[in-house]
Amino acid sequence: MRYSTSEMAKDVVELVDHLGWTQERELHVIGVSMGGMIAQELGQLIPERICSLSLFSTLSRFQRTVPFIQNLRNRVNMFLPKSLDRTIIDVAYNMFPDSWLDAPDTLHLPSSTTPGCLPAARHTDWETGAYGHFPTNFARIAAQDLEKRADTDGFGPKGFILQAIAAGWHDMGPERLKELGDKVGRERILVAHGTEDRMLTFPHGKTLIEQLQPGESYVREGRGHVLLIEEQDWHDETVAKLWAKTALLSV
After folding, report:
1. What is the pTM of this model?
2. pLDDT digits (tens, 9 = 90+) for 54-89
3. What is the C-alpha separation between 51 and 198, in angstroms, rounded?
4. Which domains does the chain have, with CATH numbers?
5. For residue 24, how far is the Cα from the chain centroid?
6. What is 51-64 written as a DSSP string?
């Protein structure tokens, strides 16, 4: 069986079936990057069960948006062995614009009133275990990446390569996108993409918007690949409004 976005969408169907989330217009689906590709396939499988479909920083199929040699170099560099420092810098560069990486860390931090959240590691109370900000956004992203890579069982080269293959094979052409919009309902669909996205460049988002014609589309000037981190407040408010609007459509 090929490792693909369509097969992963079937995994999602099995999961929501197991949870008993089987009613019409019950699911609010958010997909970011490859998650957005899986979400498109999910919309093909169970369109009548989707209340809203939000697609952030994703694509319908890969297109070459840079010169051939540069594109080839970029793809090869993804798999070449590198030092840990170089790897972390490259990840941050591909995910976020330089201006954001250099800016002070202003992420909303969890507190003692955050449901289900414990104090920081190696602390038993919130008085000494309150979370703090990093000096810059890059410092936070680097720390998060280091923590992720420390889990060698959960994050390894095999999974990374298979995910890259799955994303590369993803193909939602104009006819399938039209069918997706018709069945889910375009008024239930949102697409957003940053103009400075270096992971999945902006022309991919532009094509998705043009061919899917979602009810809501957002071009985020100067933003990169991870809008839910770069623009936390805007992201949460936009999704909340879509959920409220589409819930009323189902009444």
Report:
1. 0.92
2. 999 999 999 887 776 676 676 667 667 789 999 999
3. 30
4. 5-64+171-249 (3.40.50.1820), 71-162 (no CATH)
5. 25
6. EEEEEES--SB---
